[in-house]
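FORM 7B: Structural annotation worksheet

SECTION A. Query
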Amino acid sequence: MKKVKFIYAYPLDVNRRNLYESKGLGEYPDIGQIKEKIKHWEEIWNKANKDDQIINYLIDLCEEPERASECFVIGAGMRPMSAPLLIPIIGRDGERSDEEFLETLIHEIIHVFVEERKKYWRKFVDEEYKEESKSTQNHIIVYAILEDIYKKFFNSLPGDFGDTDLPDSYIKAIDIVKKEGREKIIKDFIDNK
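SECTION B. Predicted structure
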């Protein structure tokens, strides 16, 4: 997964566009807007991931995933996801800012890299965090690695795009990382291969 290829997800985008029209859900970006955003996002990603620094870090930490590296892009009507890797240009609160896009992309890529670590998930997380929801469990390591990437490569922390837009399970995962420390959580991840 050295290179992330951004692809306009035409069939899914047409489906979302038709849904918006039939249900009167408001304005939907046209194809030209989506393709322009793809070009813009490629530039942002290539600058942030210069010399493949983020991807190489994830490969060193997690091993390279077997999955392809396509990031499908649509106009609106879905949340970002990692399987398949998909990001709409419009979020819940309007157009996705460049900062929000970058953090979202890195977040979803981390999911791709960590998902295959069965021993970590089944033996460690299910035991260590059994009181937490599955969503919180999934996001503890994701947020720890996300925070580590931001500290290493951007000398900052991930942004806060409004707690009202973050699910409670993700806020809980962030709280756990802050309490336990990202270094400890990443070490647990490495120790439980």
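SECTION C. Observations
The chain has two domains: 5-103, 118-191. The longest strand covers residues 70-74.

SECTION D. Sign-off
Analyst initials: ____
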